[in-house]
Design a protein that fits this description.
- The structure is a homodimer.
- The first copy, chain A, is an alpha/beta fold.
- The first copy, chain A, has helices at about 45-50, 60-65, 65-70, 75-80, 90-95, 125-135, 150-170, 190-205, 220-230, 250-255, 265-270, 305-310, 310-320, 325-345, and strands spanning about 1-10, 10-20, 20-25, 30, 55, 85-90, 100-105, 110, 120, 140, 180-185, 210, 240, 260-265, 275-280, 280-285.
- In chain A, about 40% of the residues lie in helices and about 20% in strands.
- In chain A, the strands form 4 sheets. An 8-stranded parallel beta sheet of chain A has the order 4-14-13-12-11-10-6-5. In chain A, strands 1-2-3 form a 3-stranded antiparallel beta sheet, with no helix packed on it.
- In chain A, helix 8 links the parallel strand 11 (about 180-185) and strand 12.
- In chain A, helix 6 (about 125-135) crosses helix 7, helix 11 (about 265-270) runs antiparallel to helix 14 (about 325-345) and helix 13 crosses helix 14.
- The model of chain A has no long low-confidence stretch (mean pLDDT about 95).
- Chains A and B meet through helix 13 and helix 14 of A and helix 13 and helix 14 of B.
Chain lengths: ~350, ~350
């Protein structure tokens, strides 16, 4: 994997990441394709919004349909008909947020599937193996997701465990051309812990660095604080990825601070729930005021939802729980997010 | 509206119906777009399968979003971005199958909405008004749906009421170029009643004739019986529409008997439930045998579901209740049905 910075403006920068499956223009927003599908979207439609890369979830895919199965079927790209780059998370976050009866030890995590209750185990080595079977272009180290709020001692213990797992992830990762491994800086909202985490990860050496454990309830101001003191600790010539973020103004503020990559379920999930991101704010299309509204969702947007339909129609679809409502609202939100990123890259 | 027969073969025929919104090649299958959307499909995708015309449901649309609202928004074609012909049913069938607390009198039906319990009333005049507001290319007369099974007396009373309503529908219908009104032959499984209904409707005079009250549990043999003695009573130079039918072999048998038009929820509904119609039969994609199946759903089909994905992926999507599963399975089934109709027209 190669990263080239093409322009800078104060702390912000634009660039290109070259992977085995194509180029990612940065700053980049990665639509979330949890279960080998960006919900309610054909992959060619995701691509049409301008997305260069999508994210897949190791936790979901290992449980269903299974990483070995996907490998036998030709890998995740072929399975889901997405020929572009794919980043997979490590499974650590979802184990903590979705699985039942978790048991963490030094070696890894044992947990019950949220689907069928079956017992599974993830370790750094297992997470690397799964992401390799999936054929991920960008693999994330296996880490422990620090709860929020956490005391300094809790955040320290968690960060140190994640560091050990990062080291083991690096050792277990099978390098190949155009495939990358990213480290994840942890440490909660404690500057000394973030610094220890960042320095240790840089010592181990990764192809890119993510900042994890944010957007978990700390608020935007605190999140920007963490970015302000953490980003300067990361190498300039490696991509920086802010995990699970965020709303448009979170992204704008993070790009200004030097972040290159984002992922978030907000555009897809809120689209399915009837919330649209539009120039000037958000619209809850369920509101009665839109029942007779002949305007497009966002007059400046060129997605099919905005070009071909009135708000009144989208209101009707979402109120009627029609699948087409989820399809069009998701498409629009992903278009909005990609237009935002394009504006940031060109602006 | 103009109907031209382009070829005949024994009782079967091919033709063209010219409407205000374009040409319908017959025999035609009309995908069902109940609530102003063919579920899980963009309208351009419906068109891409080869569909010339879709069906809208008066009952659903009058309740939500309301016919007056759709008229204010520019009519159903514009509202749902379907520029081609639309046939609307009269609401009679859904009032009987979906609404609560129905009260039928000579003049019409009072019923409670299945959505919010609100009281509504449909009469022949009201049904004509609603279908006019929607901008329907082919309007159906308001009829009473005869229950099945029904005694001769019940079927007779019901058919006679439907005849009165057909007469009133004809009087209330506002003619305009390229817009048609179809009568509906009722009479259950009783030849004398079907004959009385057909002759009386032909006397009133309609642009086309539907055969109603079939595919309600009588079985294919009985349905074909009814067609065998009813179709000869209808004018040769008018389109014949078998309502709510059916499975592929129902359609093949009905075309051989001289039917020109069909509608049915089977391809869309069964698609969402994981059942695919393929060359050689049906596939329930949920079955475990497809979990590792690298073949396309139907190797001869050119729809995106078959061109871009393996059965294993569709199995995964449907088992995971992913919206994309509904989208792809629906697309395939509609493509299968349109390919079937094309084969019948060309065969």
């Amino acid at each position: 994997m190669k990263f080239k910075i093409t322009a800078t403006s104060d702390k912000a920068r634009t660039g290109e990441i070259r992977t085995a499956h194509g180029i990612i223009k940065t700053p980049a927003f990665m639509p979330v394709g949890t279960a080998a599908t960006v919900k309610a979207m054909l992959p060619e439609s995701v691509r049409a919004t301008g997305a260069d890369i999508i994210l897949g979830n190791t936790y979901h895919l290992m449980l269903r349909p299974g990483a070995e199965r996907i490998a036998k079927l030709g890998g995740l790209h072929k399975f889901m008909n997405w020929p572009g780059p794919i980043l997979t998370d490590s499974g650590g976050f979802q184990v903590m947020s979705l699985a039942k009866l978790r048991k963490i030890d030094k070696d890894g995590v044992t947990f019950q599937s949220h689907i069928d209750g079956g017992e599974h185990r993830l370790t750094p080595e297992k997470s690397m193996e799964i992401q390799h079977l999936l054929g991920s272009d960008i693999t994330m180290v296996f880490d422990e997701c620090t709860p929020y709020p956490a005391t300094h001692e809790e955040a320290e213990d968690s960060m140190r465990l994640s560091l050990e797992w990062a080291e083991r992830s690096k050792q277990a990762f099978i390098p190949s051309p155009g495939h990358a491994l990213f480290g994840i800086v942890q440490g909660g909202i404690y500057p000394d812990l973030r610094e220890e985490s960042a320095r240790a990860l840089v010592d181990i050496g990764f192809d890119g660095y993510a900042i994890g454990g944010l957007a978990v309830g700390e608020g935007q101001e605190e999140m920007f604080n963490v970015l302000d003191y953490t980003i300067p600790l990361l190498p300039e010539n490696k991509p920086r990825y802010l995990m699970g973020v965020g709303k448009p103004d979170d992204i704008i503020g993070a790009v200004a601070r030097g972040i290159d990559m984002f992922d978030c379920v907000i555009p897809t999930r809120s689209g399915r729930n009837g919330q649209a991101y539009v120039r000037g704010g958000t619209i809850n299309i369920r509101n009665a005021e839109y029942a007779d509204d002949l305007h497009p969702l966002d007059p400046e947007c060129l997605c099919p939802a905005c070009l071909d339909y009135a708000r009144a129609y989208l209101h009707h679809l979402v109120k009627s729980n029609e699948i087409l409502g989820s399809m069009l609202m998701t498409w629009h939100n992903l278009q909005y997010y990609q237009d935002l990123m394009k504006g940031l890259r060109e602006g």
